[in-house]
Amino acid sequence: MKSIKFRSIPIFLVCSLFFGLTEVVAQQEFSRQDTLRGSITEERAWWDLNYYHLEVKVNIEDSSIAGSNLIRYTVLEPGQTMQVDLQEPLEITDFQQDGESLDFVREGSAFFVTLNKKQVTGDVNDVVVEYAGKPVVAENPPWDGGFTWTTDRNGKPFVATSNQGIGSSVWWPNKDHPYDETDSMRISITTPGDLMDVSNGRLEGVDEHTDGTKTWNWFVSNPINNYGVNINIGDYVHFGEIYDGEKGELTHDYYVLRENEEKAREQFKQVKPMMDAFEHWFGPYPFYEDGYKLVEAPYLGMEHQSSVTYGNGYENGYLGRDLSGSGWGLKFDFIIIHETGHEWFANNITYADVADMWVHEGFTNYSESLYLDYHFGTQAANEYVQGLRLGINNDRPLMGTHGVYHRGSGDMYNKGGNLLHTLRQVAGDDSLWRETLRGLNREFYHQTVHSKQIENFISDSFGRDLSKVFDQYLRDTRIPTLEYAFRNGTLSYRWGNAVSGFDLPVDVTVNGKEIRLQPTTNWQRMEVEEAGRYRLVVDPNYYVGSFDLLGE
């Protein structure tokens, strides 16, 4: 496969370099509902989640659901009003504590319940929420989520949830903010008797009822983010295997439609080699206690914790396409690799605010390259990640606005991955890079984080202040450009198109000689050997531009 080549100056830099144009992003206005959804409100702050028991009966005939959620919590400080979230058109029919019904009011998707029992710091209490209705139907899952109601080729119902963007409260009542994960969870889903539900964690048992329905009881023993909770109902067949991993035996369980078992048995052979690569780079799979499942779903796929959903058509690439254009993207099934990478970056390390979503998508985008590196070599990984640059728009910053459920640019995938690839070059030593990735998963094991925590950890690991580098790639839209000129045996260079103080080291070759420069936004100079016509080439593994100011 041929290496992807880039010109010394990306064409999308021309306007900003020569005409001084910068992007003007309209100030977005946020509503009261944005704040209620995206902030740690007073009615959320005083209590800490311990446990959910979600019980849902799925009525396929009329696309409705009915159920309850027991919420167990620890009182952090006295408070008598609790916020629980559930989106229209679903309705909460009752709140109860200690068997007593409670008063509540609704404001959009936020329900405020008044607790009669005195809430004493340190106490552990339960609230039971009962609800029912017809949930939102997903228009474009998993991006525009909700419930998907469809059938398989045999006419059997095929039903699933997906809700990262729209929020888990689109189908079940909960504390719908990512900062507070429940420590454990039980999920009990009632289905028609000839169908199976697959949810997160391990199957504890199946209850059979006189009306012909069955309740599938799953238990999650690890902390879980609410958007990772899912229902998958279908005419599934099950097969599995044992993976000998860093922490011992890890169960791999596969649930696929009966009609696709043969194809799945072949395609899912990629799972063990993938786990080898990810445990090498990131450390042990974070949820040995809950196992690993790959579950067929009626949409492309999603990183539901310990219950990764799959709908990529049992072929390599992204629906058969190589998103990088390098050829390497057809060497693996994109959904298996990408969505499982999220088990480390999204489910183990989870954003505390969706404004920091690049932590999920940037690292997981780069997991695709690291998979290639492990199995096909560094050159393959380099060509893949460089090819993804053609999908970067630089339309707005990767960071969103905190406190209002606002995400950054979709560039958080490809640009986030290229930021990490650039940092790998700065590290220079792959052992340092690997230890940084594994260290992140140890330091923030089963935690919710803000981007700054990740940024500071990487800086500390490298022994170098990278704050301006992160500001450039996460909080600005410009691509930094190495401006340089040769004159009278002297190379002059600096970073242009950059935030003040930007100081990314960069590897270049000057007339074939490899040099690491330490540019800043101020001019620096160094003597170079006389060699007639000079030529400077920036290592293409850095996501930067370069520009010869004299054009020689």
Describe this structure in words.
- With 552 residues, this protein is an alpha+beta fold.
- The protein has three domains: 11-31 and 342-475, Neutral Protease Domain 2 (Neutral Protease, domain 2), CATH 1.10.390; 43-234, Immunoglobulin-like, CATH 2.60.40.1730; 481-548, Immunoglobulin-like (Sandwich).
- The protein is 22% helix and 31% strand.
- It is built from twelve helices and 29 strands.
- Strand 16 and strand 17 form a beta hairpin.
- The radius of gyration is 26 Å and the shape is globular.
Short description:
It is built from 12 helices and 29 strands. By secondary structure, it is an alpha+beta fold.
CATH structural architecture of the largest domain: Sandwich
N- and C-termini, Cα separation: 32 Å
Helical amount: 10-25%
Assembly status: single chain
Structural class: alpha+beta
Question: What is the name of the CATH superfamily of the largest domain?
Answer: tricorn interacting facor f3 domain
Specify Rg, calculated over alpha carbons. 26 Å
Percent in strands: 25-35%
